[in-house]
Amino acid sequence: MKMLSAAAVMVLLGAPAFAQMTPNINLMPEFQSKSPEEKEQEAVKDKAYRESLRKIPDAKASSDPWGTVRSNEAPKAAAPAKPKTKTGSTTQ
User: Fold this and answer.
1) Which of 27, 34, 51, 60 could be cross-linked to 38 through a Cys-Cys bond (beta carbons 3.0 to 4.6 Å apart)?
2) Burial 25-55 (b: 16+ CB within 10 A, else e)
3) Residue 91: pLDDT above 60?
């Protein structure tokens, strides 16, 4: 039984080292340059995007849905706390 547990420990300790020995795989493809047609299409898309952003009106009104519920006055001071007894409870 000791041999089996020792073998299991050796396998568990060797697994991270085995994982480091895998070949280096580059998941990112090499950078491909764009053709002049693709660059022109991208420029047209960017121009259309910028023009669409100009058409969005500026928000001048407040978008606070709770604005009418809240009051503009400062909150009132809390009432003074009742003195506590030695046990921590208040007398009633």
Assistant:
1) 34
2) eeeeeeeeeeeeeeeeeeeeeeeeeeeeeee
3) no
